[in-house]
Amino acid sequence: MEKPLWLNPHFFPLLLAILFFLLQPSLSASDYVRQPPRKVVVTQHHRSKSDPQQVHTSLAGKDYMRISWITDDKDVPSKVEYGTVSGQYNAMAVGDHTSYHYFFYSSGKIHHVNIGPLEPSTTYYYRCGGHGPEFSFKTPPPTLPIEFVVLGDLGQTEWTASTLSHVDSKDYDVFISPGDLSYADTQQLLWDSFGRLVEPYASRRPWMVTEGNHEMEIFPIIYPHGFKAYNARWLMPYQESGSTSNLYYSFDVAGSHVIMLGSYTDFDDDSVQYKWLQSDLAKVDRKKTPWVIVVLHAPWYNTNLAHKGEGESMRKAMEDLLYKARVDVVFAGHVHAYERFTRIYDNKADPCGPVYITIGDGGNREGLALMFENPASELSVYREPSFGHGRLRVVDESRAHWSWHRNNDSDSFVADEAWLQSLTTTKSCWLYPGNTDDSMVKKDEL
After folding, report:
1. From 214, 307, 336, 389, active-site residue
2. 338 and 382 in one domain?
3. Could you tell me if 316 and 417 lie in one domain?
């Protein structure tokens, strides 16, 4: 005689599991939890030693772009041929090259060539070093609107590939990363693999990056200063912006001034970076450049249990500068989750402070930061531990639309979005005690 169902040893565990799921509230967007990252993707080099690999582009001052690439052949010249018609190169520029050693690793020849002056909103076709395939990129628009993709802690896993495919599914003008690129962590071959992985994207739109902790690669006595691979491979326009370090710089594009700060170099009020930031902010004319955006790695505001307080010393040193300059938005990475805050100054809601956004969820191999503080802070508007990317579309002098796109396997889903108002339009924010800086916009100028 067959036993009753309830006498089956698996019956009660199954019943409990069913009841558990039936009694659970339905998941809201903020409860959605992405699975851990998939395996690391190692991207091989299939071209000849003379052909370019790891090609990426970056903005290099007004009307110029920098083309960077690597060749195994050390005799390939550092030159770029380019034009506005495919296969027809009516201009050429020559640049510099470098290389580096890290323990037993020797890099290929790393080329950096500035080309221009270029026309805005124009597609250019180019060839690197006289060898290999043709590439193309589109220059950013001269005026608003403009769209930025913002994406931190990228890594090179299968989730990274998913994120990049979602980014590529919709056009944009400039890519911004708050650091932690390759997750090579001293394994220099992973730098090469990462460069090949992102080449199809970074060769077509300017990639503007700053460093994270995974770029440091410090080894006591032998490599005490760190960032050897990062500085050699990802040359940014620091000299063009008056900086003395590739770890922090700024650039202007279509009504927006973007400042890329370094969380892992000196930042106190006696530091070179602090004085540079002070000078850089003072030069911004908000009537011509209504939007100011800051990007750094370790977040100043964070309700996730991961990396709690790691950006606090930098916040205490530099927050006043950003507040007085009426910076509109601050992007950070480091925490492997997404979180958007309200406007904040000195740990309090403030209509004249920046909007703080953490977007360290590109797809890295370390997994997601799943644990947030409870109850949630009233300063935190939306938070979710999932992989994804963000888009900031600056529509005009006063409005920008922010959206965060969660990776949903084969597609992406807009899980959070908000309209941002430029602080140049908030007249009360330009009347505060101690504002004697003539570079600041006054109430009667708005």
Report:
1. 307
2. yes
3. yes
Query: What domain range includes position 117?
Result: 48-139
CA–chain centroid gap for 272, Å, is 23
Note whether 67 and 149 are same-domain residues.
no
Q: How many CB atoms lie within 10 A of CB 117?
A: 9
Both 259 and 375 in one domain: the answer is yes
58 vs 1: which has the higher pLDDT: 58
Cα separation, 228 vs 215, in Å, equals 8
What is the pLDDT, as a whole number, of residue 431? 79
Q: Considering the chain, what percentage of its residues have pLDDT values greater than 90?
A: 86
What confidence tens digit (pLDDT) does each residue in 78-128 have? Answer: 999 999 999 999 999 999 999 999 999 999 999 999 999 999 999 999 999
Q: Which two tokens stand for residue 274?
A: 């602090």
Domain assignment of residue 23, yes or no: no
Cα pseudo-dihedral 152, 56, 218, 366, rounded to 10: 40
212-269 confidence digits (pLDDT tens): 999 999 999 999 999 999 999 999 999 999 999 999 999 999 999 999 999 999 999 9
Please state the domain count of the chain. 2
Burial of 20 (0-12, 13-18, 19+ CB in 10 A): exposed
Catalytic: 307? yes
The answer on pLDDT for 437 being more than 80 is no
DSSP 8-state symbol, 3: P
Cα-to-chain-centroid distance, residue 147: 13
Contacts for 321 with CB less than 8 Å, ≥ 6 apart: 274, 277, 278, 281
